[in-house]
Write a structure and sequence with these properties.
Layout lengths: L24 E3 L1 H27 L1 H8 L5 H17 L1 H15 L1 H19 L5 H4 L2 H17 L2 H12 L5 H29 L2 H8 L1 H5 L1 H13 L5 H8 L10 H5 L3 H32 L4 H29 L1 H25 L2 H19 L2 H4 L9 H17 L2 H12 L4 H19 L14 E3 L14
Parallel strand pairs: 1-2
Helix pairs in contact: 1-5, 1-8, 1-9, 1-12, 1-15, 2-3, 3-7, 3-20, 3-21, 4-5, 4-7, 4-20, 5-7, 5-8, 5-12, 8-9, 8-20, 9-16, 15-16, 15-18, 15-20, 15-22, 16-17, 16-18, 17-18, 17-22
Amino acid sequence: MSAVAAAPGSRTNPAPVPRATGAPTATDPALVRRAVRAAALGNAMEWFDFGVYSYIAVTLGKVFFPSGNPTAQLLSTFGAFAAAFLVRPLGGMVFGPLGDRVGRQKVLAVTMIMMAAGTFAIGLIPSYATIGVWAPVLLLAARLVQGFSTGGEYAGASTFIAEYAPDRRRGFLGSWLEFGTLAGYIGGAGLVTLMTALLSDGDLMSWGWRIPFLVAGPMGIVGLYLRMRLEETPAFAAEVAKAETERPKVPLREMVTGQWRALLLCVGLVLVFNVTDYMLLSYMPSYLTSELKYDETHGLLVVLGVMVLMMVVQPFAGALTDRVGRRPVIAAGCAGFLLLSVPALLLIREGSLLAVALGMGALGLLLVCFTASMPSALPALFPTRVRYGSLSIGFNVSVSLFGGTTPLVVTALIGATGDMMMPAYYMMAAAVVGGVAVWFMTESAGRPLPGSAPAVEGQRPRGPVHSPAAP
């Protein structure tokens, strides 16, 4: 059955989703806080790496892809960046169905280990000058490990928080997942900015670039500890309780063909979310430096300031989605990017620090419309039985095709056309696609997840809590 059933008064009338069943589930506030912390930290570690990779892309190009052409170096570096996204759907097809079968908590622990290992390995790879062509080959291999593990990370983390959260606070609690994303970006950007300011070009090239990647080791250990201490989500526990033995395997075909309407909506929503996200937080630092010849340190500081602004607004925007709904907030973001992308980029191209800050700040506030809404809106597209798997597939297909390729495609478009406004046009096109998806999606704010009982805030029950993830 499709997961985009129309609510009363909806404009569309697709096939119905499983409705909420059973008595309301009382959530334990302490467990909810632990779940949010563990999920957000994993997301922070993931995007710490992606942020560092983007902000230090120029240096990585010189270390791993020697060439006399700076544009060719940047394209090669972003090519390795994009390669990780090509295997994300494979990771999603492995980890997603596994999460629906054995539990969310176990799979999220595995993805944490793989992410930390892949990131840590990048910091150990010798340079091109030392081992020649094996350097970029090993870099690509490490990126593929990261991409494969990331295929199960975001969908699992958002599902984990959504299934723990009370219905009326799912937007607010889900927004902390992207708060972790921003914290990871800020950690990566801050460390790169500090190294750029303190180290000479020679030191940065020889050893300084390794530091951010090596930091992933301790971060991964902490994140793994937090995730191993978590109990399984109430929604998944209820699914397991329906069967006397281990849950039967859900066919991959059911996750795709049985959810095709919801998958199309998911792809459209994730497209606008990730194109604008990667454009602002991953591509813009290199755009300011390589294309506009902006001072590297000042450019990174501007992006860092924008992310701090987004972090401040993020929880309030998440709470707003609980009050007015996910659809109005996402629609406002799509309209904003359609109307303001060109003026914002013109401000950025003006070059002064104030103009760049205003243009980037405007784009950052529009992006919050997505970062605050998507962690709660996307899991609500699918029923519990296939939620992790279907969301992993839809999310990662869209990210791989449109989000992760954004820096590479925009850099290539600018090189081919010479039009420095390509980033704005790309965001506007994404906003149109997102607007269509918003038009057809069903409002989920304040409502139970499809196929799950209503979730309300309450106290943790006395006595042992059954956890299907326990051995």
